[in-house]
Design brief:
There is one protein chain. The chain contains 6 helices and 7 strands, in the order ββααβββαβαβαα. It has helices spanning 42-53, 66-73, 119-132, 151-157, 181-184, 191-198, and strands at 7-16, 32-36, 78-85, 88-97, 102-110, 138-144, 161-170. α3 links the parallel β5 and β6 (138-144). By secondary structure, it is of the alpha+beta class. The chain has one domain: Gcn5-related N-acetyltransferase (GNAT) (Aminopeptidase, 3-Layer(aba) Sandwich). 27% of the residues lie in helices and 30% in strands. The model is unreliable at 192-199 (pLDDT under 50). The relative contact order is 0.25.
Length: 199
């Protein structure tokens, strides 16, 4: 993939300073489970990263070698949590314990087939709860205007607040690193779900 001209984006840094600030999702999703991926698995983590992030220009880690993935994952301060719906992986988040009692939600998102089912707010609620199990000062994350259109709204609805906003210039690949381009040409709506609605 070649680089295309630089693109201006807005990056939002958000934080939560107390577990009392969490506004839990009230979504009830059948078949929802959350499990920690306790054994570092570069293959599984790369699958989650590529599957969740393809539509939102997550590409930086796609060129990582196996040993780079393993070195990143095999650290006591990092946790990977995976959500399932009826036994199928639906999304994930990574938590990283940092200095001075901070915990960062490093990556967070859903696989395309599970967007729009109420899982986003539910999964973020669980991410924040588990982050606060380790945090003593704050839970934080960042997002940008390349993310899902409702991502920022979800973070704010759960009780995060923006503490810093900045403009950045990035060079994006000439196409999204996506195995399923028809999904994103369908306005971010899963072809599987569209087919079901047409029946």
């Amino acid at each position: 993939m070649t680089d295309k001209p630089e693109t201006r984006i807005t990056v939002y840094h958000l934080e939560m300073r107390s577990p009392d600030h969490l506004q839990p999702s009230t979504s009830a999703v059948s078949g929802f489970e959350l499990r920690r991926a306790a054994i570092p698995s570069p293959a599984f983590s790369r699958f989650l990263y590529a599957g969740v992030g393809a539509g939102w220009n997550w590409y930086e880690r796609l060129n990582w070698r196996y040993d780079q993935w393993l070195a990143y994952l095999d650290r006591p301060e990092l946790e990977t949590w995976v959500s399932y719906r009826h036994g199928t992986p639906a999304g994930y988040f990574e938590l990283e314990r940092q200095d001075e009692g901070d915990v960062e939600i490093v990556y967070f998102g859903l696989l395309p087939e599970f967007i729009g089912q109420g899982l986003g707010g539910l999964l973020l609620t669980e991410a924040v709860k588990r982050a606060w199990a380790h945090a003593s000062s704050r839970v934080w994350l960042h997002t940008c205007t390349l993310d899902h259109p409702y991502a920022l709204r979800n973070y704010l609805a759960r009780g995060f607040r923006i503490f810093h906003e900045e403009q950045q210039t990035v060079s994006l690949p000439d196409r999204r690193p996506d195995a399923w381009p028809e999904f994103w040409s369908n306005n971010g709506k899963s072809p599987l779900l569209s087919a079901r609605e047409e029946r």
